[in-house]
Amino acid sequence: MKNILILIVLLCFSGLACACGTDAQREKMAEKLYADAEMQKFVCGASDSCSMEDFKAGLQFQKYEEPFHGQVLSVCLVEPTLTATNFYTGVFVKKNGEYTFQFISYGTAVKVQVNKAGVPMILEYSVSDPDNPDYSLNQYLWNGQAFIFSRTVPIHD
Questions:
Q1: DSSP β-bridge partners for residue 60
Q2: For the whole model, what pTM was predicted?
Q3: Where is the signal peptide (predicted)?
Q4: If DSSP codes are grouped into helix, strand and coil, which group holds residue 96?
């Protein structure tokens, strides 16, 4: 039993067990993001464009699940494997068995959590800019159908 638990944890950390959806669903999410020129440039790197297969290979899919009204909301964050201070993240939500596109974020981080009222939310951390010390995050709340912008919160060090 202990060995099975260790295997599950290792698979989860490797991204295999915690990846979002099926291969076909991940393919659709990658296609949606590939259509965005800025996301494509970032993922493809120095070449600014690459094949769909290379683009998909440059992505990681991470699933987050949050409770909402007695059900579980599945959120998929799709991020480049390329690391940088600022990067793009595709946000998708599972509805009726399929992942639907919400938005593309550009900043330092995207987090999925639940607020004090039990509503799932996305926290989008702003771009890191050494010339601009102001730092904030945008909060998006789940309304039962989509994540909608709620407010911008300044963050002070």
A1: 79
A2: 0.84
A3: 1-19
A4: coil
